[in-house]
Write a structure and sequence with these properties.
Helix content: 40-55%
Structural class: mainly alpha
Bound molecules: iron/sulfur cluster
Number of strands: 0
Number of helices: 10
Shape: globular
Order of helices and strands: HHHHHHHHHH
Length: about 190
């Protein structure tokens, strides 16, 4: 099973994306379909939530996955299975993002699901999302999850920052040192992402 559907009252029209989210989501969608991200099929969203996203915002992209090379949908399906295996972790990341949301538009919740799914990849988060740069990821996070993004005062790499937040919440993801300053893997968490 894929990530949970976002509840929407029966019969209500799917919401349209506003502001820069449309361009970011389009880029994320195309990257996934072209095999340039780590995101699962349907970006990790439940069927209905994904269908609503496409229907309201990208009707021109409905069915475009059909023309992708066969390994792309296969890889997407495998990643959906991997997401299921790490569902608890995905949910904690998603909740962390949702708790810091801007409350500006309904698709913040879908974006939280998508960003959390990309956190399960092995590359830099911006690359695993299919974005152009770390800067673009920063803009997306500051726009949609400003209360969380504002806490990254030391410019940590975003994925590391999220796990550090979970670590501080309940210690579930143990850091290698009580303080970043004396941590032997400091450079994995801070600095450039190339
Ligand atoms: S630098 Fe070390 S202590 Fe700080 S977040 Fe990274 S792993 Fe954790």
């Amino acid at each position: 099973m894929l990530a949970q559907a976002l509840p929407r009252p029966h019969g209500e029209a799917p919401p349209a994306l506003r502001g820069p989210n449309h361009a970011w989501l389009e880029r994320i969608l195309l990257a996934q379909r072209q095999g340039r991200s780590c995101l699962p099929v349907r970006l990790g969203l439940e069927d209905a939530a994904y269908a609503a996203l496409i229907q309201a915002n990208f009707p021109q992209l409905a069915g475009q996955y059909d023309s992708a090379p066969p390994q792309v949908p296969e890889r997407g399906a495998l990643r959906a299975e991997l997401l299921e295996l790490r569902r608890d972790e995905w949910q904690e990341l998603r909740d962390l993002l949702i708790n810091g949301r801007a409350d500006r538009e309904p698709f913040e919740e879908a974006l939280a699901c998508i960003v959390a799914a990309a956190c399960l990849g092995g590359d830099h988060l911006w690359r695993d999302l299919g974005l152009a740069s770390r800067e673009q990821l920063r803009e997306l996070l500051e726009y949609n999850f400003p209360r969380l993004a504002a806490r990254n005062t030391h410019n940590m790499r975003w994925k590391k920052f999220f796990y550090r937040q979970l670590c501080e919440q309940d210690g579930g993801y143990v850091c290698r040192s009580p303080s970043c300053e004396h941590c032997p893997t400091y450079h994995d968490c801070f600095g450039e992402e190339r």
